[in-house]
Fold each of these.
Amino acid sequence: KVNGDRLWDSLMEMAKIGATAKGGVCRLALTDLDREARDLFIDWCRQAGCTIKIDKMGNIFARRAGKDDSLAPVITGSHIDSQPTGGKFDGIYGVLSGLEVIRSLNDLKYETNRPIEVAVWTNEEGSRFAPAMVASGVFAGVFDLEYGLSRADPSGKTMGEELARIGYAGPEEVGKREVHAFFEAHIEQGPILENEKKTIGIVQGAQGQRWFEVVLTGQEAHAGPTPMKVRKDALVGAAHVVTAVNKIGHSNQPFACATVGMITNSPNSRNTIPGSVFFTVDLRHPEDAVLSKMAAEVKAAAEEACQQHGLSMDFKEIWYSPPVKFDANCVAAVKKGAEELGFDAMPIISGAGHDACYLSRVAPTAMVFIPCEDGISHNEIENATKGDCAAGCDVLLRAIVERANA
Amino acid sequence: KVNGDRLWDSLMEMAKIGATAKGGVCRLALTDLDREARDLFIDWCRQAGCTIKIDKMGNIFARRAGKDDSLAPVITGSHIDSQPTGGKFDGIYGVLSGLEVIRSLNDLKYETNRPIEVAVWTNEEGSRFAPAMVASGVFAGVFDLEYGLSRADPSGKTMGEELARIGYAGPEEVGKREVHAFFEAHIEQGPILENEKKTIGIVQGAQGQRWFEVVLTGQEAHAGPTPMKVRKDALVGAAHVVTAVNKIGHSNQPFACATVGMITNSPNSRNTIPGSVFFTVDLRHPEDAVLSKMAAEVKAAAEEACQQHGLSMDFKEIWYSPPVKFDANCVAAVKKGAEELGFDAMPIISGAGHDACYLSRVAPTAMVFIPCEDGISHNEIENATKGDCAAGCDVLLRAIVERANA
Ligand SMILES: NC(=O)NCCC(=O)O
Ligand SMILES: NC(=O)NCCC(=O)O
């Protein structure tokens, strides 16, 4: 069994880096705060006897040697970056659970056959730099390195520049090595486990996602003397699409989610009719066919907005992450761990994307979910209990050890 | 007759300060560019023999002495600040027309009975600092000085701080002196004169305006695992209101205008359900009763959005500028000038607010409009012809001289 108090203390210590007024964390990818948190993690890993490697995407691997250190490792981990108004469990819980597994194995002087590595994947959130899971995507060969390093934030700074700036542009090749298995522990970020009163979610896979960037262009004009009937108001067009995206989410139930998370209006002046609006669309569904249908519906709504309001548009799909099914053996290892420990557990499909989604393309993969309060994540009030955190970490320990010895 | 070439050259010279790629101007109130343009104007006025006074709101008065300099002056003028994507005529045309009147009187060695002053009113646009026409409002006693100086831009900088920073916090008391008459020349900023093929608009008054600031608050949550039915999406609520504002504009024809010009979404992250949205509403109508009805309709739409989407709201009216009727004698002076010069002219109601609206509370006031291309303003492509600029200035000259000698 892991040390739940130690895991909790590490979570709370880490949560100080980027702490926000409402009890959350703002630790955007590749900011100084991200660096500070990475430094602390590496410090803790070195104290636990690990060796550290960093690759060209800034992914960190903290390694505990195996009996046969030439064998492919079992890797676990998640991410350190957060949303602008993020919580203190999303991502970092999976990273520190990995560390706690190593600390616990050290306490027990337990040697696994294969090496175990704790990974920190760069920019999982996709908030500062889109898309999400970009560095685990490069690791898995889904994106090439150049694509990964050239992702830019809204101010134009690239991941490559920012990795160099914070000193995390490592020397290692990205990916291109065998991974025996990958496990990721994470808070659920939704309400299902809590509603079903379960401690452990045995994650079977993840729903698919499609991300879009849309620019609607009309014509700036004076809000006072410009008659309603001659206006080309880009924001009125964008509002039409925001409303439609929401309806498309509701009309593709069960499971569909559809969100406009980001919108930037130009020139954004009180008495000027908006001339152009940029916004993003995030669509999710576990079935690829429904996801595609939703995408077509959004596009049709944007075309309708253009026709009704005299606008032109640039409509781009910038990311497609297909539905994922995890490895049967790894899922079984998670299930077995939960059963042996006597936790109430249930199978679950992840609503969010995770680095595990991309890892599953190059290694047998599974995930462990624990509940979060009211199902709330990507919010400063995100919360989880010490007991659930320890429970998830216990299951992770068993699944890792089972695979590392198999 | 004024010198139309000289007026045009001055307009083009001034348009270099803050020039944008698409041929417009970005010269936000109290920025370094505003200072540069003010400095140039003062330079030109001194060369034309004027004395300069600057008041505590940064309003500039360039004075040409009258035969009896103890008499109250006739003032003309407008503003130097622009929209973020503004044109090279809005405001500055009225300022430089005033200067051209003085230059022409100098050329003719013509002495008026009363002194003539060219005024530059600070922050007319209301874009960087809301509301519009704030410094002419303080001059007219509509706002007190403290209110004027404490207006803040989105980054929190106040007009008082920024006036001090650019060296335009002058020593003079604001207002509190007699003004014999006020005239303002301006581009129409709408399509009426062009559609009616008229050179001169004899402005009878201006429609009323009401400005609002609205914050809708929901709950941030993850765009992936958060079911549609439990969401409190502030942007979906805002989209409802944006759509409603546009409909309210259309349903209160003739004359009504209704615009959401500014919107800021938080946390503005692609995969986070928006937790709060700030936006502005600009309502206009020449009849006060209709304007009030429109305001009530907007409020009802915002309340509906809150109910439908589980949001709370902060709904504030931040500015009310009632419909204005200009002084019969001053309007007659403009009409007479246009008639004597043989221009096609028509009476018109201003769709925009102008410093003249506030001046009309403390002095007999009127305005001269000239057409602008396609009725487009608050846009970098804003345009007017050299001939129309000269025509408006000629009318201004006659109206000013008539009042300054009366
Ligand atoms: N776990 C998580 O918040 N991932 C971010 C990517 C996504 O939006 O699904
Ligand atoms: N003339 C002008 O653009 N004024 C700004 C105030 C308004 O929006 O009416």
Amino acid sequence: SINGDRLWDSLMEMAKIGKTAKDGVCRLALTDLDRESRDLFIKWCKAESCTIRIDKMGNIFARREGRNPDLPPVVMGSHLDSQPTGGKYDGVYGVLSGLEVIRALNEAKYETEAPLEVVCWTNEEGSRFAPAMVASGVFAKVFDLEYGHSRADVDGKTMGEELKRIGYLGDDEATIDAHPMGAYFEAHIEQGPILEDEGKDIGIVTDAQGQRWYEIKFTGVEAHAGPTPMKTRKDALLGAARVVDLVNRIGLDRSPLACATVGMMQIHPNSRNVIPGEVFFTVDFRHPDDAVLADMDKALREGVEKIASEIGLKTEFEQIFYYAPVPFDKTCVDAVRNAVEIGGYSAREIVSGAGHDACYLAQVTPTAMIFIPCVDGISHNEIEEVHKHWSDAGGQVLLHAVLAKADE
Amino acid sequence: SINGDRLWDSLMEMAKIGKTAKDGVCRLALTDLDRESRDLFIKWCKAESCTIRIDKMGNIFARREGRNPDLPPVVMGSHLDSQPTGGKYDGVYGVLSGLEVIRALNEAKYETEAPLEVVCWTNEEGSRFAPAMVASGVFAKVFDLEYGHSRADVDGKTMGEELKRIGYLGDDEATIDAHPMGAYFEAHIEQGPILEDEGKDIGIVTDAQGQRWYEIKFTGVEAHAGPTPMKTRKDALLGAARVVDLVNRIGLDRSPLACATVGMMQIHPNSRNVIPGEVFFTVDFRHPDDAVLADMDKALREGVEKIASEIGLKTEFEQIFYYAPVPFDKTCVDAVRNAVEIGGYSAREIVSGAGHDACYLAQVTPTAMIFIPCVDGISHNEIEEVHKHWSDAGGQVLLHAVLAKADE
Ligand SMILES: NC(=O)NCCC(=O)O
Ligand SMILES: NC(=O)NCCC(=O)O
């Protein structure tokens, strides 16, 4: 059995790093706070006699040896970085429940056949550096190292520079080829309302939605808000506003499965009495069916072109991120299902709405995910909350799923 | 006669302070660059033997004595602050053409009956500190000193603090009562396309449009862009986007006289995969007819309420700035008209689309404005441009209008 109290205490301890006024967490990737959380994680892992390996993308692997060191490890994990207004569980739960599995096995002096590892992936959130899950993407050979290191934040600082600055640019090759895995399990909060609504403790994640992310820039003509007649304006914000409405309709028309969001917008020069000359904004599309995702893409491209030509705006349009819907590995999903039965938890199958490092890992190693509910389905928000018995259940299911694979 | 070359040279010299890459000017109110421009203006005025007075709002008055020092001065001027992406002429032209009038009179050893003054008003643009024209507003007793000093920028720095910091918090009372004027003349670029389109060198400004400025904040619920179903979202940016479209329609429906603009928007947390929980934005309405302006106000209030309730957003709504359309003084407008005839310039009557310090001055002293064209009507843009013969013409008309009043 895992120790639910110890897992909970570690979650609360980690949440102090980057704690916000509203009791959330702001711990953007590769900031000093991210370094602090990494340092603490490593300290805890060393206390459990794990060996630590850091790769060229800053991914941290903590290893507990198995009876047969030649077997590829069964890996658990997630990420420690957060959104600007993030919560205490998104990512952290997957890392620390992995650590709790190791603590529990150490306490029970239980030796597994295959080695176990807990991994912390760099920049999962995609908030400071787009796109999301970039370091697990490099590990899964979706991106090359050069791409990973060159991702830049709004100030132009790159991931490579920032990894070096915080002391987490490791020597190890950051690919699955250098470090094959037996299986990968990621425990995570659902970040949506389904499990709580249906009173389930565990989500057996069978698939993850596909995603497409875009960057759009409209350029019009900035001019004085007073003496510039309405009919001669080329208002870049008007164009962006119409795309926000379009994106919402694209999502609603394909509801309930589709999601469509404009989350970020930068207006230039952003002065009350100046018609905006330039607006940069992002679009995030999700759907479990790749064909529908392609159809959403088409609707966006056509709509943006129409809106821009109506107003007379110049358009820069780029899809910066795409992955097809991900089916998880049947044997790993079965291991989760069996672990749920052993624990006697209420559960249902579920499709992940969010992207996770597991989505990239699934392309290169047998992978599954375990969801626990979160209160009101709210995440990417400082008020993100989890009931402790959910946290206990997720840790317990992770333990048994991992043991099934490691001793197989 | 004024010396058009000297006026032009001074404009170019001043434009070096805060020069931008695209040959525009960024000289926000009460920044170090604003201080530099003030210092240069004062240096030039002292070289013309003017006495300098600075009031509690940082307004600078440079005085050339008249034959009868007891007469209230005839005052010329405008402002030296700019938009973030501003041009070389907006405001500066009114200050430096006033200085050129004094230089020309000194050169000609011409003594006026009434004293002359050139004034530089603080924070006309309203970009760093809202609202616009706040210091001339205090001078005209529309606002009190406490209100003026407490206006804050986005970082919370107040005008009072920043005046002190740059050394321009003067001792003089900042009201017309302490410093009566005989008349006030402001030369300015049109900032719209009418004069150039019709091939006129001078606009005889008879009126200025009324304005209403608003601040609106929508609060929804920030949540994850992936697993949060479209139907349960409370997306603050969707609400703001719909208001941008509404504002545009309110303007277009009352075209060609109405103007309606959303110039500024701040999105929170502004992360690609987070549904925006909070959006702050501004609205700027203008119309020469106060009744229509009131009707625009009604349409906005109703529309915002409807949009917010459709999406389920909390609304904070405030009108932060209002003035009714301004008729300028008949005798001063006639003085401009006569000066145009003396110079033999092509001219037309015009209504100002922009707000100017003259709009507040008009409430407390006989006031008129002189417009010169600007290329393509573009202003509040780094590419703002003026042909030199327009600049010459405006300075000449200002000279003769002022002389008519000062020797009356
Ligand atoms: N789990 C999570 O919040 N991932 C961030 C990437 C995404 O937006 O799906
Ligand atoms: N002239 C000018 O740009 N004034 C700023 C205030 C306004 O927006 O009308």
Amino acid sequence: MQILKNPAKETWNELLKRPMQDPEQIRESVTTILDDVRKNGDFAIRKYTRALDGADLEDFRVSPATMQKAEEELDDALKDAIKRSASNIRKFHEAQNGGDISVDVQAGLRCWQKAVPMDRIGIYIPGGSAPLFSSVMMMAVPARVAGCKDIVLVTPPDENGEVHPAILYAAARSGVDRIYRIGGAQAVAALAYGTQTIPQVDKIFGPGNQFVTLAKQMVSLEGVAIDLPAGPSEVLVVADKNTPPRFIAADLLSQAEHGPDSQVILIADDEQLIDRAKRAVEQMMQQLPKQEIIGRSLESSKLIFLTDQRQIMDMVNYYAPEHLILATENADELAGEVRNAGSVFIGNYTPESLGDYSSGTNHVLPTNGAAKAYSGVNLDSFRKRITFQKADRKALEDIGSATMEMAKAEGLEAHRKAVEVRLNDQNASL
Amino acid sequence: MQILKNPAKETWNELLKRPMQDPEQIRESVTTILDDVRKNGDFAIRKYTRALDGADLEDFRVSPATMQKAEEELDDALKDAIKRSASNIRKFHEAQNGGDISVDVQAGLRCWQKAVPMDRIGIYIPGGSAPLFSSVMMMAVPARVAGCKDIVLVTPPDENGEVHPAILYAAARSGVDRIYRIGGAQAVAALAYGTQTIPQVDKIFGPGNQFVTLAKQMVSLEGVAIDLPAGPSEVLVVADKNTPPRFIAADLLSQAEHGPDSQVILIADDEQLIDRAKRAVEQMMQQLPKQEIIGRSLESSKLIFLTDQRQIMDMVNYYAPEHLILATENADELAGEVRNAGSVFIGNYTPESLGDYSSGTNHVLPTNGAAKAYSGVNLDSFRKRITFQKADRKALEDIGSATMEMAKAEGLEAHRKAVEVRLNDQNASL
């Protein structure tokens, strides 16, 4: 952990730089897989699932019997936790419903905007022994609230062709319509192009390894919508002399345990607090598994002392963190000054992990500074806004002259004529 | 114009296929330009502006004196038309304001979502003798309504280093903060990376040629947000026996005059109407400039007769048109069944050109089927939604157990500990 004291503004860019991602080495294999699946559909999927996941599957879809078994197998405490968290996620995303608007911009001319759910969306969930079933809920629950008709989940099988029961249970609780046991770039290709058995979707969501991330990027250039540009996870904690160092340490370590390239930053206006937080991290780290990952992440972590109060929020907004924890006494006030962040955690009793699982906000958030322009996943990630307009003859007579004038100036004569023929016609019905 | 009668559903995919874009040939030159601008800033910009636009500029920025001159030069009728249209655009986008939500998901745990404007956005406007000043308004007016602090416009200069006065006037009326006389991939690079004189922006908007489009795509992979995937413009008209054929013809031709790859489709349940519309197009075309462009676009246009009423809206939603004109007697009813479209024009007095300029809706819309997952440009294109949460100790005691249970199951011990240390601490203040 590197301690920095009142770094000059000119150094912020270098200081807060994220690691560069270079997907070039794997571009060729991802291109090959995408092409193969587009041309050969299920045949290619089966081949890659055998080669990469070690499972030879005749049918990728998870059966109702398997779903049933997962529910029976899973620990009751975990099932209960999933249910309670899903309920909060549902509440917060339901509150985002509505928002349709309608305006008479002038007499006889109404314009409106309507949120319409996407028909079919796809969710990618990585596999492994500790799978991210919480991400299932973060995408499927809002998709269901938005009104998507078909929610498709893909996740790689283990060598026995099986999927972790927590993923299956979370999917069932969240309203997923069907689950396919496929992963990697081949799963992204299946969702993007469709195969004989796997349907093409309108938008692809979800985290994944570099193959999945690059595949999502590549199909997005072909017009398939994707959720967010992906990068390593990040937390920035703002603290003061009253913040308990153990709280800070646990929050920084929560981020560091995600991976060696996780970004961990603390900003405080108290030098002693920074030293105490550093010691608390070193101590608490000893009690944790994943020490190697944590160690590597902490190597590039920054503990920044800033005297100037205004500079603190300037730096926060400059960095645009995925997760922002405001644990100072004036946290509520600082919250009002946040311009760039994914999700904000306020006060001493709102650890980031609460939002990762249970508070109700979404944990799929913009990383790598994307919070300057991107929202995290929310209800509107599963809907599009369609605009409508309807003019009557009188309104067209009124505003139509402006349209004709502008069309003429842009050299678009048929555009002008589309107004003129209507105004010249005395017989058309409304 | 190809007439098709009751095409079978299995043929829709082939029938409604859009032309493929292949940017591969220009990828190398765009890559070179992007790299050059990133490394050499203004020096590279000046070089490309000299080579590609034929203007050698020492200062790219448009001066206040030039802005003043543009206002004086421009025709009063056009200025008035711009003002009236901008006013409608402002009204409709102002109505999209608000939408912040706050929920107590449980006692002591509040979650909220706030729309926050992007700090600085960039708008690209192509040059030429009939420049798209209407697009200036479509992006700058909502950016201003959203509250962006700095609205930067770039547009290529002519050989004399000048910009069309209509662009300058529309920019001034719409609240653009500064204008730079640069274009092409080099302008996109300037906005994406920043140079000595041109500031880096959070998101890049606007239409352009294939170099601009590819440059936007490429910088988007580096994390710079862009507005929409770009493709040729499209209109789909739904008509019945009562729709005046001249109205249909003018609307189809409005689309066709945009470019040789514009997509023009008519669907109707009346064979005679289709024949009459076809004749009206052929007749009206004779009175128009740009006949070669129109002719090439119409070559691939489709006039589709569908008997089955339900199939009409199925085909509309399958195609997901950028512009949808519903000019049937039951247009209001059909409007309720639209699931995929950019913007919808209802009735006989709402030509597409009204929305292109003056109705108030945005004309930057998803093409190429992207309307299945993308909205057109709207107020939220210039804002992001940030989520916040705040729990008190009691709420954390309640829901924290669910968080700890799930963190444990995902193998994230520090996440679990971040709740535990707080519940174990008796002394921390709120």
